[in-house]
Design goal:
Elements: E1 11-16, H1 18-21, H2 30-45, E2 49-54, H3 57-64, H4 74-98, E3 103-108, H5 111-114, H6 116-131, E4 135-140, H7 155-165, E5 170-175, H8 215-227, E6 231-236, H9 242-247, E7 254-256, H10 264-271, E8 277-281, H11 283-290, E9 296-297, E10 301-305, E11 313-318, E12 321-327, H12 332-337, E13 347-349, E14 354-356
Parallel strand pairs: 1-2, 1-5, 2-4, 3-4, 5-6, 8-11
Antiparallel strand pairs: 6-7, 8-10, 9-13, 11-12, 12-14
Helix pairs in contact: 2-4, 3-4, 7-8
Length: about 350
């Protein structure tokens, strides 16, 4: 893991949880939102670029539409998102405009990450907004989500994917807890973990009442971002000076140190795609891919699943474990017809279009 000073971070994603932006009665916690806006404005004045990912739309809609609690049905959650999103954005826009900053709402769907052309377009748009001095306010477009409202898993994962896509220096997850702890809050044995490593295991409590994530989701998102080169901190959003303290490198919250960052195309393949098929490979191919970072050749393939065309993204599996993901040079029918071939010049997935998911033991 790399040790990077957060005080030197130039591009930052700040994710604000539902419990931070809303009160127990479901209404907006304007004071906490204002503190976040002021902290973001202070970072902006320092010449840093900040992107904001905020939960809270569905929680607000629950109160506005008269539900007693967060509904379980997809259509009711979509209705709540539609009702709450306007209030959430309007409040943020008012707070930032008073600080002399322009807010730019960005609503995303899974296709914006899964489809390469839209993924590139999203990056270009966000880069342009940052270049123009705007503060992108990002959320999933829950109202038109075709599946359950966890296409990205939760907003913690969405924030991690955005930070990875834009090669950010830091990701800060602001929550209703002050850090990752060794035991759930309230447990007398609970202690703050200052630095979190991949092999560290903790006892976790349930998700917050108004949100979808919980500490497990934050840990998964933080580890994901850190493994792709983004220093990540989980900290309290209830204290007005938390964000500024994190970015000064104070000993606050829990830090997930950043590993080395892999190339952009490999990040997209590994994290933001939905595979269209699966290639099962033998042990020789596994060693060539994982240990030598070689291309996948036709002789290493023992079975094909799915019907896909050339340039499709596929899973590469050995002994029921996905070891890599890549873009094929051939379609499924051609690969299947050539099973058993010994011609070693037949490249099915070139190493430049390959993301390794399994590291060498």
């Amino acid at each position: 893991m790399e040790v990077r000073a957060l005080r030197d971070a130039r591009r930052i994603v700040v994710k604000v949880g539902t419990s931070v932006v809303t009160r127990p009665d479901g209404r907006l916690a304007v004071g906490r939102m204002g503190a976040v806006a002021e902290a973001v404005a202070a970072l902006h004045q320092q010449g840093r670029q900040v992107l904001l990912v905020s939960s809270g739309a569905i929680g607000l809609g629950v109160e506005q539409l008269g539900f007693e609690r967060r509904p379980r049905s997809l259509v009711d959650q979509q209705a709540c998102a539609a009702a709450g999103q306007g209030t959430l954005v309007t409040t943020y826009d008012h707070l930032f405009s008073r600080l002399g900053l322009t807010l730019a709402q960005v609503l995303l769907t899974e296709d914006d990450f899964h489809r390469r052309a839209r993924y590139i377009s999203l990056g270009q748009t966000l880069e342009r907004l940052l270049g123009l001095g705007a503060i992108p306010l990002i959320n999933e477009n829950d109202v038109v989500a075709a599946e359950h409202l966890s296409v990205f898993g939760d907003n913690d994962r969405l924030a991690a994917l955005v930070s990875i896509h834009l090669a950010c220096d830091a990701l800060v997850l602001l929550s209703d807890v002050d850090s990752v702890r060794t035991a759930p809050p309230g447990d007398p044995a609970s202690e703050r973990i200052a630095v979190m490593t991949d092999d560290r295991k903790v006892s976790l409590g349930p998700a917050s009442a108004g949100g979808t994530g919980g500490m497990q989701a934050k840990i998964r998102a933080a580890r994901l971002a850190a493994r792709e080169g983004v220093t990540t901190v989980v900290a309290s959003g209830f204290l007005p000076d938390t964000l500024s303290r994190v970015m000064r490198d104070d000993d606050v919250g829990t830090r997930f140190p950043a590993a080395s960052r892999r190339p952009s195309r490999q990040r997209w393949l590994a994290l933001a795609t939905v595979p269209e098929g699966t290639l099962h490979v033998n042990e020789g191919a596994r060693r060539a891919l994982v240990e030598r970072r070689a291309s996948l050749l036709q002789p290493g393939i023992i079975a094909v699943e799915g019907s896909f065309g050339p340039h499709a993204v596929v899973r590469i599996v050995h002994d029921d474990t996905e070891i890599a993901r890549g873009q094929c040079t051939r379609n499924a029918a051609t690969i299947t017809a050539a099973l058993g071939s010994t011609e070693r010049d037949q490249v099915v997935v070139h190493r430049d279009a390959l993301a390794i998911l399994q590291e060498v033991p």
